[in-house]
């Protein structure tokens, strides 16, 4: 091909497969400037214009704006730089579209009213950093200024709910419910009272409250009693209640007496708020973790047994 050959707009259109209108638009925008004019005043273009037009069409097909295309053609930025930046932008768009899809599916399944729909959309589209701040603010407000339960607070911070890039409908619904729960003043107050109780009553050697080992042992033994059909108010429950109280007395370095049992009742009642269990269920759903069995039957059995046998 002769490098000195000049082409009209119509010839450029035929060689590139574009319409004459599109080629003229690129020329008017300065993307493909003419190299000269014919005696009749028509614009003419050289081989470089043909190459620029081919590259401009490719970049536009990839979704780049005219300003970016012009910078590439004018060598203000390189093609690899533009490709990386555009790929990053597409990642964000894809994540946004996936989230919108999950929200729409949740809406189709739940059929919320207009107010709830707006709330779902607003909460779901928060950035990952904003979602983390919302939960961290809840933890700071609930446990801030208290010395008790540092390990539990660390656990809550390490078990942050993280909405995946391509969430399921269930994960979006769980996130919206969790966000509402973290902003609920009643729930915050209940957890704050539990934290204050644990901070004020923590044992000298274990200020984290109910030690994990004790908690698991108590849970296992009460679940055995539940499976065996032992009613908490029955005489058969008395020996188990005494045994469990002894475990707590040893762990918290207190005498096994009426004061211990009343103190233990207060702790259990504060910890038995079903919203606390719901918090962990929602976190597990969002993070794709197995949802553990609830402690509500254990709490109910033990509190009833303590009241009856204290």
General description of the model:
The protein has 310 residues and is mainly alpha-helical. Helix 11 crosses helix 15. The chain is built from 15 helices and 3 strands. It is rod-shaped, with a radius of gyration of 33 Å. The protein has 2 domains: 7-74, Multidrug-efflux Transporter Regulator, Chain: A, Domain 2 (Orthogonal Bundle), CATH 1.10.1660; 123-309, no CATH class. A 3-stranded antiparallel beta sheet has the order 1-3-2. Strand 2 (36-37) and strand 3 (43-45) form a beta hairpin. The N and C termini lie far apart (102 Å).
Topology:
Blueprint: E1 7-8, H1 9-16, H2 20-28, E2 36-37, E3 43-45, H3 47-61, H4 66-73, H5 79-110, H6 114-124, H7 128-143, H8 150-158, H9 169-182, H10 185-201, H11 212-227, H12 238-251, H13 258-271, H14 274-287, H15 296-309
Antiparallel strand pairs: 1-3, 2-3
Helix pairs in contact: 1-2, 3-4, 5-6, 5-9, 6-9, 7-10, 9-14, 11-12, 11-15, 13-15
Key terms:
single chain, about 300 residues, mainly alpha, Multidrug-efflux Transporter Regulator, Chain: A, Domain 2, 2 domains, three-stranded antiparallel sheet, 15 helices, rod-shaped
């Amino acid at each position: 091909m002769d490098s000195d050959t000049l082409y009209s707009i119509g010839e450029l259109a035929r060689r590139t497969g574009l319409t004459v209108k599109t080629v003229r638009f690129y020329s008017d925008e300065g993307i493909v400037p003419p190299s000269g004019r014919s005696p009749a005043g028509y614009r003419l273009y050289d081989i470089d214009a043909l190459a620029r037009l081919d590259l401009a069409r490719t970049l536009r097909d990839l979704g780049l704006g005219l300003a970016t295309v012009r910078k590439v053609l004018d060598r203000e930025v390189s093609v690899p730089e533009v490709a990386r930046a555009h790929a990053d932008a597409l990642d964000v768009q894809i994540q946004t579209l996936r989230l919108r899809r999950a929200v729409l599916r949740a809406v189709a399944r739940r059929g919320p009213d207009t107010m709830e729909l707006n709330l779902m959309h607003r909460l779901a589209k928060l950035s990952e950093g904003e979602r983390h701040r919302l939960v961290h603010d809840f933890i700071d407000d609930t446990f801030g200024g208290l010395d008790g339960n540092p390990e539990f607070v660390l656990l809550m911070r390490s078990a942050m709910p993280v909405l995946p890039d391509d969430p399921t409908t269930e994960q979006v619904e769980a996130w919206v419910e969790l966000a509402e729960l973290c902003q609920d003043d009643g729930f915050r107050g209940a957890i704050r009272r539990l934290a204050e109780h644990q901070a004020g009553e923590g044992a000298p050697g274990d200020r984290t409250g109910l030690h994990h080992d004790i908690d698991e042992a108590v849970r296992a033994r009460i679940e055995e009693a539940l499976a065996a059909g032992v009613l908490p108010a029955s005489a058969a429950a008395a020996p188990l209640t005494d045994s469990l109280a002894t475990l707590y007395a040893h762990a918290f370095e207190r005498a096994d007496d009426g004061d211990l049992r009343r103190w233990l009742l207060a702790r259990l009642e504060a910890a038995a708020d079903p919203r606390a269990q719901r918090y962990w269920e929602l976190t597990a759903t969002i993070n794709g973790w197995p949802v553990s069995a609830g402690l509500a039957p254990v709490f109910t059995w033990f509190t009833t047994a303590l009241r009856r046998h204290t």
